[in-house]
Specification:
The chain is of the alpha+beta class. The protein folds into 2 domains: about 1-105; about 110-270, 2-Layer Sandwich (Heat Shock Protein 90), CATH 3.30.565.10. It has 6 helices and 7 strands; from the N terminus they run ααβαββαββααββ. The strands form 2 sheets. Strands 2-4-5-7-6 form a 5-stranded mixed sheet, covered by helices on one side. It has a two-stranded antiparallel ribbon with strand order 1-3. The radius of gyration is 23 Å and the shape is globular. It binds adenosine-5'-triphosphate (ATP) and magnesium ion (MG). The site of magnesium ion (MG) has 5 residues, from helix 4.
Length: about 270
C-alpha cells in the first residue's frame, strides 16, 4: 500500500511538472510570436527597398560603370534571396509556435494536403545542417527510400515535421556520440523508409548510433529523461514527439534499441489520400 502511494505521488509530481512545462512553453511561444512577426515584416519591407534600389540602378545603368552596375545588381539579387530565406524560416518558426500553442490548449491543428516525401526530406536535411553547423566534423550517410509518385495525404504537417526533426536530431547525436567513442572504421548511418497504403503511412527511422540502455528505454516516452550534458538536452523531445504522434496525428510510435548497435523507430499514422 505504502509503495503504491509513493508511486502515485511520484506520478502526480511528474504530471504537475509536465502541466507547468506546458503552461510555460505556451507562454514562451506566445511571447516569441510577436518579435518573430517583426522579423518577417521588416524582412518583407527590406525586400521592397531592394526592389527600389534595383529600379534606381536600372535608371542609372548608362551613367555608371557597367562592371560596377553588374556587381551592384548581383548584390541586390543576393540580398533579396536572403530576405526570402528569412521569411521562409520565420514562417516555419511561426507554425511551430502555433503548433505548441494548439497542443498546450489541447486543440488539434489543421489537416492539410501534404507531400510526405518532401516534408521528410526537408526536415532530415534541416537536422543534418543544424548538426553540421554545431560540429564541422559531424558526418553521416543518409539513405532515404520513398515510394514513387506518392499522392498527397491529409495530415497536420507541423505535427509530423516536429516529430521528424526531434527523431533525426536524436539519431544524428547518437551516431556522432558513437563515432567519437569508437575508432575510425565506424561508418555513421541514418536510414528513413516511407511506405503508404490505403490506411495511411508508415515511417521507419533507423540509426547505428550509441543506442539506449534499458533504463532510458523504459522512460523514453513518459518521463523527462536526458543523457545529454546540461545545456544540450532537455529530455522533452521524445515526450513531445510521442504526444504529437499519438494525440496530434492519432498514430503509434514504437522503437527497438541496443547499446552500441543502434535504434529503430517505427511510426504508423492513419490518413486519407487527397
Ligand atoms: N536515436 C537515439 N539513439 C540513442 N539514444 C537516443 C535516441 N533517441 C533518444 N535517445 C536517448 O533518449 C534521451 C531522451 O531523448 P529526448 O529527445 O527526449 O531528449 P534529449 O534529446 O536528451 O533532449 P531534447 O529535449 O533537446 O530533445 C536522449 O538524451 C538519449 O539518451
Ligand atoms: Mg532530443
Amino acid at each position: 500500500m505504502e509503495q503504491e502511494i509513493k508511486k502515485l505521488q511520484e506520478k502526480l509530481a511528474q504530471q504537475q511538472k509536465l502541466a507547468s512545462l506546458g503552461l510555460l512553453s505556451a507562454g514562451i511561444a506566445h511571447e516569441i510570436q510577436n518579435p518573430l512577426n517583426f522579423v518577417i515584416n521588416f524582412s518583407k519591407t527590406s525586400s521592397h527597398l531592394v526592389d527600389d534600389i534595383e529600379d534606381i540602378l536600372q535608371d542609372l545603368s548608362d551613367k555608371i560603370d557597367q562592371e560596377d552596375c553588374k556587381e551592384l545588381q548581383d548584390i541586390a539579387t543576393d540580398l533579396k534571396e536572403n530576405m526570402t530565406k528569412i521569411q521562409e524560416h520565420g514562417q516555419r518558426a511561426i507554425s511551430i509556435i502555433q503548433g505548441i500553442l494548439l497542443l498546450s490548449r489541447g486543440k488539434e491543428g489543421e489537416k492539410l494536403p501534404t507531400d510526405i516525401p518532401s516534408l521528410l526530406h526537408e526536415y532530415i536535411w534541416l537536422a543534418y545542417h543544424a548538426m553540421r553547423a554545431l560540429d564541422k566534423k559531424f558526418n553521416v550517410s543518409i539513405h532515404e527510400t520513398y515510394p514513387d509518385n506518392m499522392p498527397k495525404v491529409m495530415i497536420v504537417p507541423q505535427d509530423l515535421s516536429r516529430s521528424i526533426l526531434n527523431l533525426a536530431n536524436n539519431a544524428f547525436y547518437a551516431v556522432n556520440e558513437r563515432a567519437k567513442a569508437e575508432n575510425k572504421d565506424f561508418n555513421p548511418e541514418f536510414e528513413i523508409q516511407l511506405k503508404h497504403s490505403e490506411k495511411g503511412i508508415s515511417i521507419t527511422i533507423r540509426d547505428n548510433g550509441c543506442g539506449m540502455d534499458a533504463d532510458v528505454q523504459g522512460k523514453l516516452f513518459h518521463e523527462l529523461i536526458t543523457t545529454k550534458p546540461i545545456g544540450k538536452g532537455t529530455g522533452l523531445g521524445m515526450r513531445i514527439t510521442h504526444d504529437l504522434i499519438t494525440r496530434g496525428l492519432n498514430g503509434t510510435i514504437t522503437f527497438q534499441s541496443a547499446v552500441n548497435q543502434g535504434t529503430t523507430f517505427q511510426i504508423d499514422i492513419p490518413c486519407e489520400q487527397c
